[in-house]
Amino acid sequence: MMILAIFMATLLIVMFLEYRGIVWHNSLFANKYEVKGLDVSHYQSEVDWSKVTRGHQYQFAYIKATEGSDHIDDYFEKNWTSAKENGLLVGAYHFFTSQSTGEQQARNFIKIVPKEEESLPPVIDIEIDTNKDVQLMRKEIKDMSNLLESHYGKKPILYVTYATYNQYVGDGFSDHEIWIRDVIKPPKLKDQRRWTFWQYNNRGHIAGIDAYVDINVFNGTLEEFNRKFKVGG
Hints:
Strand 6, helix 7 (162-169) and strand 7 (178-181) form a beta-alpha-beta unit. It is globular and about 45 Å long. Helices cover 35% and strands 21% of the residues. The chain is of the alpha/beta class. Helix 5 runs parallel beside helix 6. It has one domain (2-228): Glycosidases (TIM Barrel, Alpha-Beta Barrel), CATH 3.20.20. It contains eight helices and nine strands. The model is unreliable at 5-17 (pLDDT under 50). The chain has helices at residues 2-19, 27-30, 49-52, 76-85, 102-112, 134-152, 162-169, 222-228, and strands spanning 36-40, 60-67, 71-72, 89-95, 123-126, 157-160, 178-181, 197-204, 213-218.
């Protein structure tokens, strides 16, 4: 009985710490990757990027810029500027919706996000419901992707859940790199496709950010990351 009581007490402590974002089980699997980064939006409110970067744990930050055809994230400009000033490689992401065309959404993004050679490729965040017209959604995503690539000279990365990957992306975007969300276990796409970024933690607890924050890894070494995204030249 004593052993069982100790086990249950330990389990409760671990569950509490994970709930608070102090520990995260997926970190056991993510720790082998050399390159880590954050993605942030207005949900994190004010971010003190000098504190975020103090321990040199993170190499990049993806920052929400836009959503749909007209929404602009209130903290985008400040996050973009401050994260760069504190040494992070930055990129911007757009939250895709089914309420407007891909062209309209691309124009919204282009209006806000600077065209900078040293930034990461734009990201289209696809978390729409899976009950939409598949062919229509693929068309709108492709239209947006083509416009962003034409403007920025970089093919967008697609952020997906397993549901949106299987429904909209897996069969139609073989030339795009994938950023997969899996906060439970190491990611595995059904077609064995290689992923580029993995969001492994959605309850990160780090200095400089008062709210929970998403933490990600790059699928490769630091040298490969720098070469791929032309860091330092």
